[in-house]
Every structure is written in C-alpha cells, then in structure tokens.
Specification:
The chain is built from five helices and eight strands, in the order αβαβαβαβαββββ. The chain is α/β, with parallel strands linked by helices. The protein has one domain (26-115, 122-184): Rossmann fold, CATH 3.40.50.150. An eight-stranded mixed sheet has the order 3-2-1-4-5-8-7-6. The longest helix is centred in the middle third of the chain and has 14 residues, at 76-89. The protein is globular.
C-alpha cells in the first residue's frame, strides 16, 4: 500500500496483518481521486476519514493538497498503524485522530463549528454503520452544500439512492468493491 500522488507520492504505508482491516487497493484509491478531481478541488479543504483503518484515504487527500484531515478509528491496532503512517508521511500537524466509536466521534464533531468538504467512509462490509453514519451526516452541520461524501462498500449490495438530503450522484464498481458518491441535494 502506498500514496498514489501528490507531495508524498510513492511513500509506502503500513498495513496490519490479518483481515480485520481492509485497506483500499491502489487501483480503487486512484480511481476515487480521479473521479473527485472532476468535482472537487482538494486544495486546503477539510477531510473527514471515518473508519480510517490505516489512514490510506485521508493521507492520500492530504498528499493531494487537503489542508486538514480528521481520522476516526475505533480499532486500537489499526489506530497504532494509522498514527505511524501519519508520522511517516509528515502530516502530524494537519491531522487529528479520534480513537473511538465512529458514531460517538461524529456526535462530538457535530458540536464543533467545523465542517468538511470531503467525507470518506469505509467501514467493514457487514457493518450496521452503512445506514447510521450517512443518516447522521445528512442531518448534521458536518457537511455543507458543497461537500462530497464517498462511501466504500461491497459491490454486491448497493446503498440507497439517498440519505436525507444526501443523494447519490455516481457509483463505480471495481471487483468486489464499490465506491458510492453522494452530495447534498439542490433545493
């Protein structure tokens, strides 16, 4: 696993052994950021990486110019590797790590006066969070009308077309993995 583009292009990232964490493949990551480039300027934006695992997606956004990334991860072993990857890439000053349940962390973030231009969400494929997190995002001030929410899920199970004010505008499938892109509906 490595950083695909930007200031840290080619830097290797650590990944935990076993299957408890499923890092996004380089091919899927590259496709994700190519699709985003047509819709979103990453320069200076705030990114929220939910179920961050090793941090590969959030670190890729930072490498491509994002100004800040908040990483949410509940698993302690993945969190240890996440911290090492952030230090290895030199993004410690641009990163915040919340080591706790994603729902609890989002309730804390929602009370802050900060919003995110890009939200990356990649939970375990069988997780109940696939409906809880998008619903919470849609009803909060965490996202704005210009925000993009990307959800990585199993290609075998498409998510609903919308979650509250969030509507899907694209879906791409790469083998067993699907990327679903959501934005705030225009009124």
């Amino acid at each position: 696993m490595r950083v695909i583009a930007g200031t840290c292009r080619g830097k290797s990232l650590l990944s935990p052994p076993g299957v408890s964490t499923r890092p996004t493949s380089d091919r899927v990551k590259e496709s994700l950021f190519n699709i985003l480039a047509n819709r979103l300027d990453l320069t200076g934006i705030r990114v929220l990486d939910i179920c961050a695992g090793t941090g590969g997606l959030g670190i890729e956004a930072l490498s491509r110019g994002a100004g800040f990334c908040c990483f949410l991860e509940a698993d302690a072993s993945a969190g240890t590797i996440l911290k090492k990857n952030i230090l290895h890439t030199g993004y410690g000053e641009k990163a915040e790590i919340l080591m706790m349940d994603a729902l609890k962390a989002l309730h804390i973030i929602a009370r802050r006066t900060i919003d995110f231009g890009l939200v990356l969400f990649d939970p375990p494929y069988a997780s109940a969070l696939y409906h809880q997190i998008p619903d919470l995002l849609a009803s909060s001030r965490i996202i704005t009308p210009d925000s993009v929410v990307v959800i990585e899920c199993s290609a075998r199970s498409a998510l609903p077309e919308s979650f509250g004010r969030l509507s899907r505008f694209d879906r791409r499938v790469y083998g067993d993995t699907a990327l679903e892109f959501f934005a705030v509906e225009a009124l």
